[in-house]
Design a protein that fits this description.
With about 90 residues, the protein is mostly helical. It is about 80% helix and about 0% strand.
Length: about 90
């Protein structure tokens, strides 16, 4: 049960990270300057390398993942709103 919860939490976390990466890829696609594309590519790489912060003081591991997932989803929502506003 613990391993299954860990797997589901990891999958949900990386699905949220994918939402953020998709937005940066869209920005990359619309970028025409080579330097801007290079910075965006590095940002995408950094985002893909992220790991969730796990609070070992919490009684169960999935609670930390849930908080990280919400934070990444909010980041994606904010980035999407900024992209639409431009």
């Amino acid at each position: 049960a613990v391993l299954e919860d860990l797997f589901q939490s990891e999958a949900a976390y990386y699905e949220a990270v994918k939402q953020v990466v998709d937005i940066y890829v869209e920005c990359y696609d619309h970028s025409v300057e080579a330097e801007a594309q290079k910075r965006l590519a590095q940002t995408i790489t950094d985002i893909m390398a992220r790991r969730p912060r796990i609070d070992l003081a919490l009684p169960y591991l999935s609670e930390s993942y849930a908080a990280e997932i919400v934070a990444v989803q909010l980041e994606a929502q904010l980035l999407r709103e900024l992209l639409v506003a431009q």
